[in-house]
Amino acid sequence: MITKEKKKKSMLEVYVFGQHIPMSPDKARRVIDQIRGRSYEETLMILELMSYRACYPIFKLVYSAASNASYNMSFKETNLIISKAEVNASTNTKKLKPRARGRSYPVKKYTCHISIVMKDISFEDEYREVDSLKSVKKMRWKKKHPTIGYQSSEGIWDKK
Q1: What is the C-alpha R_g of the chain?
Q2: What angle separates helix 25-35 from helix 40-49, to the nearest 10 degrees?
Q3: Which one of 18, 102, 140, 150 is most buried, by most CB atoms within 10 A?
């Protein structure tokens, strides 16, 4: 019964992966930290108004995730929130830049992987109701101060 619920909850999420995006992972994390946990519409406004170069690829990923959610899973875009967003380092390309007098200096080009998970919050309330009903059924009401009987040489006496 628990496995069925996990499958249902995973069906409420949309995953998007952007791989080998040509930017530094630290610069992408700076933008991802601003949009994590926000709604879809608020995220689009933030990404349009921020003046970082990392905003455009992240904007494309978020927009793609929302369009996939609305088309494939028939979610409403107003109910989507970004539940998880990660930036991981990818491969680095190393090149040599020619300099004066036959010398050269190494140049590293960083790339990163970006993963974004969007969740539909309209179905989350239904799961909360089901979970709360289960917790009520499992809860056993106990007395706050159980009475314990002790026996001594004078007789039986109660301790609270």
Answers
A1: 28
A2: 130
A3: 18
* 44 vs 62: CA distance, rounded Å: 8
Task: Give Cα separations from 135 to 7, 11, 12, 83, 100 (angstroms).
Answer: 20, 23, 22, 25, 74
* pLDDT grade for 7, boundaries at 50, 70 and 90: very low
Residue 34 near residue 55, CB atoms below 8 Å: no
Q: What is the mean pLDDT of residues 105-121?
A: 95
Q: Is 155 helix (H, G, I), strand (E, B) or coil?
A: coil
Q: Note the pTM of the prediction, 2 decimals.
A: 0.70
* Cβ pair 135, 104 in contact under 8 A: no
Higher pLDDT, 136 or 33: 33
